[in-house]
Structures are given as C-alpha cells and as structure tokens.
Amino acid sequence: MMRQEPPPPAATSGELPPEVAAARLRLLADVSRALASGLDAEESLRRLARLVVPQLADACVVDVIEGEGVRRLTVTDRDAERALRVLSGGVLPGPDDSACALAKVLRGGGPVLVTDFGAADPGDPLRSAQWALYRTLGARSVLIVPMRVRRQELGALTFVRRTQLPFDEQEQALAADLGHRAALALDNARLYAMQEHTAEQLQLSLLPDLTGLAHLRLATSYLAARERAEVGGDWYDAFPLPDGSAVLAIGDVVGHDLAAAVRMGQLRNMLRALAYDRGDDPAGVMCRLDRVMQGLTGIELVTAVIARVETPDAGPWRLTWTNAGHLPPLLAQPDGRTTLLEEGHAPILGVDPELPRETASTVLPPGSTLLLYTDGLVERPGEDIGRGLTRLRQHAAALAHEPLPVFRDELLERMSDVQHDDVAVLALRVP
C-alpha cells in the first residue's frame, strides 16, 4: 500500500540563510509575473512549472480537473526527454473512486507528502497512472499541493525529487503558496473567458435578422478582436421602411465590455422605432435618436452612419445618409473607381442633441458596392487613419468586380491581418 504522509509538524529550525531566502523570494516574484503575463492560464502554468525546476524540485507536474476527469497539463523535468515519456494528451480518470495521493488532494484533502509509492493497482486507474509517473521520473520524495480557490479544487501541482531530501517546512509553505497563486490565475482566466463568451454571444444575438430585405443583395460580418479578447459595441443594422425603401446603419458604442454590447442592442432598437415611425430623412432620424439616447438611456458616446436606400422600379437607385462622427462610407464601382462619401458629417451622438445635422445624397451606379464599416477595419495603433483608408480603397477597388460574398470575405482577410479591435461591416451591391 502507498503510504501517504501529512505535512510534518512545524520544525524548530532557525531562519533560512539569506541567499536561500532571497532565491525563494525571487522565485515567487518570477512565478507571479509569469501568472500575470496573460490570460492564457494554461501557458502561464507551464511557465510556472519551468520556473520551479530545478529551484524547488527535479520535476513538476500540473494536473487540472476537466469535467469528470483529470488532464495532465504539463510535466517539466530536468531531463526533457524523460518528461515527454510521461506526458500524454488524454484525460486521466477522475479522483472520486481513487485512493492515491493526487485524488486525496483533488478531493480537498490539502497538501500531501509521498515517500512510499507502493505498486500499481489495476482496479484504480488513477493510482496506476501516478505510479507509472513516479517510476518514470525516478521519484524518491513527492509533494502534492492543491490549486484551490473559492473552496473549489481546480487541480494540483506535484513537485518531485529524485533524492530522499525531504521538503522542509518552508518549502512546503512555498509550494502551497505557488498552488494558491496558480489557482487564482486559472480561476481568473476561466471567469474572464466565461464573461467574454457571454458578451460575444449576446452581441451576436443582438445583431439583426435581415429577413424582409430579400430584394437587396447584402453581405454582413462581425469579427471580435483577436488580440485583446474583448467584446465591444460595434453594430450594424438593415431593415425595410413602409414606403419600400430600406435603412442601412452602422456604428460603435463607446466601450469594450458586456455593458457596451447591451447598450448597442438598446441603441439599435431605438433606431428602428424612430426610423420606422415618421419617415424622416436620415438627419432627422439621427437628431431624434440623439435626443432620446441622452434623455432616456445611460449611453454616453456613439458614432454612427444612418443611410436610406431608395430602389425605384425605373431609374437609378439613390442613397441618402448622415454621419455622426463615424468613418465615411465607401462606394466602389466595378471599373475600380472608389469614393469616400464624406458629406453629411457632424459630431458624434451624445455631445449636444441640438447640433444641426445634414442629409447628403448620391446616385448608386449599377454594379457598384456600398460599404459601411467600423474603425477596427482600418485603424492600426500608431498609424495615421488616412493610411488605413487608402489601404481600404485599394483593396475595395481590386475586389469590386467580385461577387458580393467574395468581396466581403477577401476584404476582411486583407484588412484584418493585424486586428486590434472589433470589426463590423455591411455591404450592399447595386444590381
């Protein structure tokens, strides 16, 4: 039978030598930086394992609870080839029916010292896996500490020594501290991922259903930021009006969080009601939206473009629009000519609801593509926005003859190679 020893009682040893104490403080500082360096908790835990070997142990194993089982996230050893022999990508059996030391820790039993490893037990798969691990690593002394936070075990750190040098009281305290810090990092990353997923799903659910616009050739897309992993208030909309025309809109509510996504949904619903109710021109709708937004909501600052597309049976299509502090729409023609529609520009929503706004107008040539987009498509940190707009015009000109879905996908691919912000696009192809 495997002998599991609880941590020994406090020893009456003296203070640590200054150089040892300093080394352990440096280890804690290095581990803290590694765990705080990003939101990829699993990579942070791998860095932790690399830091503690060989300072605290000859090998370090990180196990995380995954569903009903245990996933061996990483094994770090002085001998890299030895570590590869014991690291598998599968999920080990869960701790509920096992008597091994790791199972005890994962069930909330606290730190455990192991010096007698017994034998494999075919009836206890987790114990057999641990026995094989210890044998391959040449373990003589093992300390297992929980990764525990908010009364929940998230996993365990296993420190392995190939000598019988025991883990003293200070080393056990250090290992327990490392386990607690690792648990906090893992828990924070999981909570952040849950919030991010919730916000993104909410934002996607609030993006419009474009049914009722079958007579228009539309292509839309929303991309969440790749590097910052945040969800913001980028939005687009398209809906029919009673007179047969259609409203196209795009905008950005200030913020990058769940609240911004909620505010985006409120704003879009208000716009639909205001535009459908009276038949105002785009500038009139924008003024009313600004007043209602400031009077009835907590939404602070918004950029937006509201456009109206008239599609008569005979004669050219016509576009009227107004712009509240947003980037100008782009009109690309099949022959490669591109135009930024810079007229009708006024300050952003949320500054002064009495500011005058104007409606601009233009004819939409047959075969042309109207593109509404948010700033994430063209902005790059440290780069003048003019360069981004020039790049957009060049790519749109090269793609203007392509089918609309290809135009959208290729434009996003070419413009979003380094994406630092959310991107929303709405494209219309004129017959």
CATH topology value of the largest domain:
Phosphatase 2c, domain 1
Radius of gyration: 30 Å
Order of helices and strands: EHHEEHEHEHEEHEEEHHEEEEEEEHHE
Question: How much strand?
Answer: 25-35%
Uncertain spans: 5-13
GO molecular function, one term: protein serine/threonine phosphatase activity
Catalytic activity: O-phospho-L-seryl-[protein] + H2O = L-seryl-[protein] + phosphate
Keywords: ATP-binding, Hydrolase, Kinase, Magnesium, Manganese, Metal-binding, Nucleotide-binding, Phosphoprotein, Protein phosphatase, Transferase
EC number: 3.1.3.16
Outline:
The protein contains 10 helices and 18 strands. With about 425 residues, it is of the alpha+beta class. It starts with a strand and ends with a strand.
Structural summary, described in words:
This protein is of the alpha+beta class and 431 residues long. The protein has 2 domains: 3-196, 2-Layer Sandwich (Beta-Lactamase), CATH 3.30.450; 207-429, Phosphatase 2c, domain 1 (4-Layer Sandwich), CATH 3.60.40. The protein has 10 helices and 18 strands. The chain has helices at residues 18-36, 41-52, 80-86, 101-109, 125-137, 169-206, 258-278, 282-296, 385-399, 404-415, and strands spanning 3-5, 59-66, 69-77, 91-92, 112-116, 141-149, 152-161, 217-223, 233-240, 246-253, 302-310, 317-324, 330-332, 338-340, 345-346, 360-364, 369-373, 423-429. The strands form 3 sheets. Strands 1-5-6-7-2-3-4 form a 7-stranded antiparallel β-sheet. Strands 9, 10, 11, 12, 15 and 16 form a 6-stranded mixed β-sheet that branches. Strands 8-18-17-13-14 form a 5-stranded antiparallel β-sheet, covered by helices on one side. A hairpin with a 5-residue loop joins strand 13 (330-332) and strand 14 (338-340). Helix 6 (169-206) runs parallel beside helix 7 (258-278). The termini are far apart. The model is unreliable at 5-13 (pLDDT under 50).
